[in-house]
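Sync notes, pocket subgroup
Present: LS, DG
LS reminded everyone that the earlier model was apo-only. Rerun requested with heme C included. Inputs:
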Amino acid sequence: MNKQLAMILVGGILGMGVLTAANAAGQKPEEVVEYRKSVYTIIGWNFKPIGAMVKGEVPFDAAAVARHAQYVEMMSKAAPEGFSKGSGPDVVKDTEAKPEIWTKWSEFQTKMTNFQQEATKLAEVAKSGKEADIKAQFGKTAETCKACHKEFRKD
Ligand code: HEC
């Protein structure tokens, strides 16, 4: 083995050691938690006003619904990255994520996929501006939030 190759290999092994405290992309657990909370804050920020409109608490505004629904859809796709391994409550204190996320990973994934699918439909329906359809699809999407929170988020 030549000297240069040996150095690269050793460097790689040392590098891996450093990375055990971070995820594959190099973020620290605290950063992952901050990211996922931010993503959900944006989701909540955009989901709430749609809810207020479908409940008749504020006047219906089709353009606002379409805009908010687009952000919810986008953030639903950004959410999975916020759950990399090693960012659970055993590592980071300030989180409401339950350890079951990582022990029942495939169930969690299913809940995430359901949410993404309903959020995508909501964004589609929102473009139509049809209030009744939006109302129905808002309900379906809200169910996917609840389903995941019930099982995987501390109250
Ligand atoms: C696949 C699971 C899952 C789905 C689906 C989901 N959430 Fe969450 N949500 C979580 C988890 C886990 C947390 C806790 C994150 C933490 O504290 O690290 C959370 C936290 C939040 C928070 C608090 C963020 C903060 O600042 O701590 C809000 C608001 C929220 N979710 C809104 C929603 C809404 C609205 C929907 C649906 C439109 C939704 N969530 C769908 C799992 C989910």
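DG: The pocket of heme C is lined by residues 33, 36-37, 40-41, 43-44, 47, 72, 95-97, 108, 111-112, 115, 141, 144-145, 148-149, 152-153 (CB under 6 Å).
LS: The mean pLDDT is 91.
Action: DG to write up.
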